[in-house]
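Schema walk-through. Below, the input block comes first and the output block second. Nothing else is stored per chain. Lengths vary across the set, and this one has 147 residues.
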Amino acid sequence: MEVKVSNTIWKKFQKRMGYSDQEMEQFRSEPRNAAVLANASEIKKKTIIVEVIEAHGCISGHKVGDRFILDGAGNLLSALCPERMCIYAISCLQHIVFSMGEMICADRDANTIKFKRTGCFDVGLECGGWGRVVMDVRMVDRDGDLT
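--- output ---
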């Protein structure tokens, strides 16, 4: 089934990405790109909240209750995040954030994914590492309460 995307949205996207007309033609030739853009307004309405639910021995000092806030597209909103953010903890979020985006594109509730906890790849002191951070991820409406 062909997905309809307005010319206004195509033009805005082209400007945002800095695509030439030729590049935009290439982008538009892939049908799934239209499907993703058709859901862009839904993704823009979402916020992703990542909350530390377990922490011990974290060199970056993350503690239970710390939160990383991302927009629906997966961009960290650094003004709403801790001053220091561990790259090893943040990098583990990519699969969950991607899965949530896929759910939105499929017109499904992103919070119904089954595996939405992740953590720093450090195995913790008891297993020969240094520390451990476990995080829970959820998606909320952007206008909603971030608590």
